[in-house]
Design the sequence.
């Protein structure tokens, strides 16, 4: 039976511009290319949706900012849940799984707090969230780098 993280890696590697090469090195054996068929149509549809969203946000930046601020809490809750699921599922292979768990819990708490606030607070939080996202992403990348280095020496 495949490891749950490997299944997530297979799904995300189809959307990863690098083809999930780093995830394949992190988990020996990588992922099976037959898990998912080519997602060409889905990528095309997402590209069209994102191009429309980019055009709308350039045409009406004020409305785009407040639309992003309004859904920020939901996005944080989804991302925190994803971090928790992946960190718990890699508990057997990663000695630093708890770091992803802590980041996931913090993002869920921040998401619920952001959902309860008024628009000016949500706008400020959107700007602060960019910094938090960069920090959490940096921590995740550092953890993956150490895991790759540790897997290389095994």
Sequence:
């Amino acid at each position: 039976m495949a490891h749950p993280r490997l299944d997530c890696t297979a799904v995300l590697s189809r959307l990863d511009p690098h083809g999930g090469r780093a995830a394949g090195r992190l988990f020996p054996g990588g992922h099976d290319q037959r898990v998912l068929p080519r997602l060409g149509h889905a990528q095309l549809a997402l590209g069209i949706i994102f191009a429309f969203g980019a055009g709308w946000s350039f045409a009406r930046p004020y409305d785009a900012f407040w639309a992003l601020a309004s859904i920020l809490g939901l996005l944080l809750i989804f991302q925190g849940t994803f971090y928790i699921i992946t960190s718990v599922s890699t508990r057997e292979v990663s000695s630093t799984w708890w770091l992803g768990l802590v980041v996931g819990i913090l993002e869920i708490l921040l998401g619920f707090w952001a959902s309860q606030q008024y628009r000016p607070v949500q706008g400020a939080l959107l700007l602060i969230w960019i910094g938090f996202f960069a920090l959490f992403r940096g921590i995740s990348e550092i953890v993956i780098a150490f895991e790759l280095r540790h897997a290389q020496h095994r």
